[in-house]
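Protein: SgcJ/EcaC family oxidoreductase
Species: Luteolibacter rhizosphaerae
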Amino acid sequence: MNSNSTDEQLIRNLIQTWIDASAAGNLETVLDLMTEDAVFLLPGQPPLRGRPAFAARSQGNSGLGISGTAEIQEIEIHGDFAWCWNQLRLSITPEDASTIYRSGPVFTVFRREGDGRWRLHRDANLLTVEPVDS
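Structure follows.
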């Protein structure tokens, strides 16, 4: 396996670990998968900057059942940076309400850190609520 295919697999594993840790409510693992200065771009909201801001926002997610799938469309690796776009689908179930489905494209930039690990560095999440079938 060449270096790029090894790195591509590491990035695929990171994405799956993120999904699994989110489903398990394991915020500590999710935080370790991002750079300290990560930035998240979400529709209609100001940028979410850094691990502390992400952690604070995620505190409001306790009690939610979250699961998801990512259909990776493309991964490109250039030195210590890589980008990926995928089609993400999430189901979010509050404790006392019906499940909400969100889906759409996500564009992510990863950075290889000094410890050799890939981490999410920038993320543009374009998920929207799926219409409810009547």
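Remarks: The first helix runs from residue 3 to 24.
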